[in-house]
Design a protein that fits this description.
The chain is mainly α. It is globular, with a radius of gyration of 25 Å. The chain has a two-stranded antiparallel sheet with strand order 1-2. Strands 3-4 form a two-stranded antiparallel sheet. Mean pLDDT is 83; it is low at 85-90, 211-219 and 265-277. 62% of the residues lie in helices and 4% in strands.
């Protein structure tokens, strides 16, 4: 654990060491009511991938709005005072304050909405940190909390890069799997939107990705997700569903058919897709998954294996934009040529199953078994 609190040693002696260890190996048997009560108000821990994408989209929209308003206010101020524009503010905070002072009430309201959007994303990160701290200090499930910390560091993600997406990684990819099989934990991490964003695999595409009509028209969200978002009051989803219902009524079709037609009119972020195509193959995740997550730095792989694994993982990305919270495989961006990784051969024409197969190979590789076991022994037994 993270160390005994006053009274813990006496309690373990009374319970018996074997019974205590058995409890720790089965944390579901421990109610931990006090900790549950303290963390119940952390709304960020309940976020879905759709929520994350909505939050981040609002931040990006409001950032663009802020820049436009700052320019508009500065030009108006210059016209009214007939003086040259002021020097650029020394920092963003000063620039916002200057804009607020000279903005109209409606403009001020828009700026405040932008501030709230950014605050919501920041609060998500703060609640993730506080949840970890409260559980580490007070939880009865000490082994589980140590393992959450251990595996979060092993599958490291910098939250300052992926922002709110890290919350879902910690709560859905790491925490549920810490007492399961390593293969399940590795797979959950590989299917984490935060991991795909952090190590840039969401940008990794085949040298000449296929662009079928189906792929280019793929909506960022399904009809069910947008409808659910509208029911929860998420603004872009509400606007989308209003347009869907209008089309359905005018064209005498179902709402789902209207959604499909509307999606084909440009709902996907095509410029972003084109940008990803220009960037080509990215080896960051492929290298890290072998060097740090599985085989280890002396695991016997070569640079060719890294490149070939990266090709297997092309198309592994995220749904919902740059900071989306859900994993998604994009078949049209996958390298469909033949490959060979660590002696495993894949014929041409493959898809997501190539990456899935290699995760299984890596999880069961002798070098992985040695590397992970050694790391666990260092944490729970001794550095030597």
């Amino acid at each position: 654990g993270f160390g005994p609190r006053p009274g813990d040693i006496q309690q373990v002696k009374k319970l018996g060491l074997k019974a205590y260890i058995n409890q720790q190996l089965h944390p579901e048997t421990l109610k931990d009511a006090a900790v549950s009560a303290k963390t119940a108000g952390y709304e960020a821990l309940k976020l879905t991938g759709l929520d994350i994408a909505e939050m981040e989209r609002n931040v990006q929209m409001n950032n663009a709005r802020l820049i436009q308003l700052q320019s508009k206010v500065a030009q108006r101020s210059m016209a009214q005072t007939d003086t040259p524009p002021p020097q650029q503010a020394q920092n963003q905070g000063q620039g916002i304050l200057e804009t607020l002072r000279n903005a109209t009430p409606d403009e001020r309201k828009q700026l405040q909405e932008g501030q709230l959007a950014r605050q919501k994303v920041n609060e998500a990160g703060s609640q993730l940190v506080m949840n970890k701290l409260v559980r580490a200090v007070e939880s009865e499930k000490q082994l589980q909390e140590v393992l959450v910390d251990f595996w979060s560091n092993h599958f490291n993600i910098d939250a300052t890069k992926v922002r709110a997406a890290k919350v879902i990684d910690e709560e859905q990819a790491i925490r549920p799997h810490v007492l399961g099989k390593f293969k399940g934990l590795l797979s959950a991490s590989a299917h984490s939107a935060a991991m795909m964003l952090y190590l840039d695999n969401a940008q990794s595409v085949a040298a000449q990705p296929e662009r079928t009509q189906t792929d280019s028209r793929r909506p960022q969200f399904s009809f069910a997700q947008v409808r659910q978002g509208a029911e929860r009051g998420l603004a872009p989803a509400v606007q989308m569903m209003a347009r869907v219902r209008e089309i359905a009524k005018n064209q005498n079709i179902t709402e789902e058919q209207a959604f499909e037609r509307l999606s084909g009119q440009g709902m996907p972020n095509r410029p972003a897709l084109a940008q990803r195509q220009k960037q080509g193959l990215n080896e960051n995740y492929a290298r890290e998954v072998m060097e740090l997550h599985t085989l280890g730095v002396d695991g016997g792989y070569t640079q060719k294996d890294v490149t070939e694994l990266a090709r297997c993982l092309t198309g592994w990305g995220v749904r919902g934009g740059r900071y989306g919270g859900e994993f998604e495989f994009h078949a049209g961006l996958h390298d469909r040529n033949e490959k060979e990784v660590l002696g495993v051969k894949f014929p041409a024409g493959g898809g997501q199953e190539e990456g899935e197969k290699m995760l299984e190979v890596l999880a069961n590789h002798p070098a992985t078994i040695k590397s992970i076991s050694t790391k666990l022994c260092r944490r729970f037994v001794s550095d030597t």
